[in-house]
Amino acid sequence: MSAVSNLSGSYAYTDTLKGVYYGPGSVKTALPQLLDILGAKKALIVTGKSLFHKTDVVKTVENILRERNAYGATFYEIGEHAPVAGIKAGVQKFKDVDADVIVSVGGGSPVDASKAILYFVQQERGGRYLPQIAIPTTLSAAEYTIGAGYTNEEGHKVAVHAPELAPSGIILDAELTLSTPERLWLSTGIRALDHAVENLYRPLVPPPIKHLCYAALADLFKYLPASKANPQDIEARQKLQIASWMSLWPIKVSSHTALGLSHALGHKLGATYSIPHGITSCLTLAPVVALKAETASKEDKEWLAGALFYLRKPSTGSLEGDITQLSVEIQKLVDGLGLHSTLSQYKVPQEHVQTIAERAVGKEDPLLPKVVGLLHGIYA
């Protein structure tokens, strides 16, 4: 039997996770509860400049911590794709205030930066990894993984990972997302869609998680347009946060790897060409799914084709036709959200395409010519 067959395998939850709390207004009770569970005394808040300066979200979290006498400081020198200079400054701030927990507030960059800060603190001190409580305000789902991507001095995305880096607590409070810019909110929703789709063909993902991905797909297709139509709809925003959770359900893995080709391409495009992660998924997901209609194994094709049922779309009569239709539906969703993007827009030189493809899949991969063709296809 194939090692990646869905008929055999194993599953375990991440070791670190003590709770996911969700619901509008939940941060007020969830954050104190998590501090108690973790025995944490002094928190460093890690966030981004815009969230700190332009909204009251961070102040809300600061006030909850102050009421507990658990506030250390707020560090907001985290840029998009988490540049390493910010990580190093964050390590110093963490030590300066004698913190024993990070509370990250924002999107994937603060969450990943917090993992990287805690990684470097542990490397320096030894002993156990200190915990993170993540309060996401986007749909990127970085809070469910053990890896932290950041940008090195050369401008390339690199990663650190350890099972203990997965956040210990997660708070999904839709009220805190109301000030998230629309394009960021919706594009990270497509990022969550990317997670859900690529988990359908990622090796070693057990069937129950794939069914959660189907549920995530259905809700993302329904509630992203609803949230665009009415950005103040708290219920839609909360359902989207839960869909994001389902798209990347916590799973104990021994190593951190890209979910699939769309993610691998996104990692090579994002930091190098300053393309936000949500937008990389808008660029690559639909074309990658179309390619899977040609190249995926029969088992992977069956999982992908099954998504149409959850989108309430009729089958075309063939696996390949259904996967192609799924690709069409994804692109229609992206376009309908006003997120249609091209590599030309982000000034990615066409002469870099071969290198991008090689860095994503390797020079020896038989799919390399098709990946090069896929990238050329998203210039128009």
Please provide a written account of the structure:
The protein is α/β, with parallel strands linked by helices. It has 2 domains: 19-177, Rossmann fold (3-Layer(aba) Sandwich); 182-378, Dehydroquinate synthase-like - alpha domain (Dehydroquinate synthase-like, alpha domain). Helix 10 packs across helix 14. It has helices at 27-38, 49-54, 57-67, 84-96, 108-125, 182-199, 207-229, 234-247, 261-273, 277-295, 298-310, 319-336, 353-361, 368-377, and strands spanning 19-22, 43-48, 71-78, 101-106, 132-136, 147-151, 157-161, 169-172. Strand 6 and strand 7 (157-161) form a beta hairpin. The chain has a 6-stranded parallel sheet, sandwiched between helices. A two-stranded antiparallel sheet has the order 6-7.
Features:
380 residues; alpha/beta; Rossmann fold; Dehydroquinate synthase-like, alpha domain; 2 domains; six-stranded parallel sheet; two-stranded antiparallel sheet; 8 strands; Alcohol dehydrogenase IV; oxidoreductase; Alcohol_dehydrogenase_Fe
